[in-house]
Design brief:
Length: 256
């Protein structure tokens, strides 16, 4: 995997559906302590970088993972952080008020839709509909699109995820760019020549990272059955991601 001179390994992972099983409510998702211990061990291994790249807000993803010394990208990469530093996308910060206003209006208009959860994540928002009766989902989608049309043109966009509609600032940014920026910040210019990357994710937003990192290492989609993806490999579930991390930790920390 590693080319000549690539003596660093970056292990970048999405969180929900990749490192932790998806739950009905985002707050109920828990990272298995065994996986946390593996990430911690990898994060303390010389020349290994661990990064979590999530749609959750930065504070939220940090709280769920609970490790201090690794890299994080929150809000689909609009916020980046490492030990002692944070960065936020300027244009996304400017759109924060629009996101908040949109959340307020959606909370009001969707208050009678059973099971809906409107989450203001600061730089983006999520409208979760995992618990919404199927017959109400069309109405919910219509209301979200109507509210986006009330925002000044070209400022916010909607993106479909797993049982969630993401409302994002319309900036030219995604998990792929975020992953590359994270590695550039951590390793400096020319990181591509020194670092191989393993990227693992389960959702449509991870496809951008599979494309952006295609030349840098190994990309893996988590999905229970084969499906079209830009990732080079596929694993079936969180348990298999755990086995992959165990294998990587074994290679990188075994002196033989
Ligand atoms: Mg995911």
């Amino acid at each position: 995997m590693a080319g000549a001179g690539r003596d660093h390994l970056a292990v970048l992972l999405d969180f929900d559906g990749t490192l932790a099983e998806i739950a009905d409510r985002p707050d109920d998702v828990r990272l298995d302590p065994r996986l946390r211990a593996l990430l911690e061990r990898l994060g303390h291994t010389p020349r290994v970088l661990v990064g979590i790249i999530s749609g959750r807000a930065l504070d939220d993803i940090r709280r769920h993972v609970g490790l201090e010394h690794i890299l994080y990208a929150g809000n689909h990469g609009l916020e980046l952080a490492g030990p002692g530093w944070t960065l936020a996308h300027d244009a996304a910060v400017e759109a924060r008020g629009l996101v908040a206003a949109c959340c307020d209006r959606l909370s009001l208009r969707l208050r009678d839709v059973r099971g809906v959860l409107v989450e203001n994540k600061g730089l983006s928002a999520s409208v979760h509909f995992r618990l919404v009766p199927r017959k109400s989902v069309t109405t919910l989608r219509r209301i979200v699109l109507e509210e986006l049309e009330r925002v000044p043109p070209g400022r916010l966009v909607a993106r479909e995820g797993k049982m969630v509609l993401e409302i994002l600032p319309a900036v030219d940014w995604d998990k792929g760019r975020a992953a590359r920026r994270l590695l550039e910040h951590a390793l400096g210019d020319g990181w591509e020549a020194r670092c191989s990357v393993v990227y693992v994710g389960d959702d449509s937003t991870d496809e951008d990272a599979f494309v952006a990192l295609a030349e840098n290492g190994i990309t893996i989609r988590v999905a229970p059955y084969p499906q079209p993806t830009a990732a080079r490999y596929q694993v079936r579930n969180v348990e298999e991601v755990g086995r992959l991390l165990e294998a990587i930790a074994g290679w990188m920390t075994d002196p033989t």
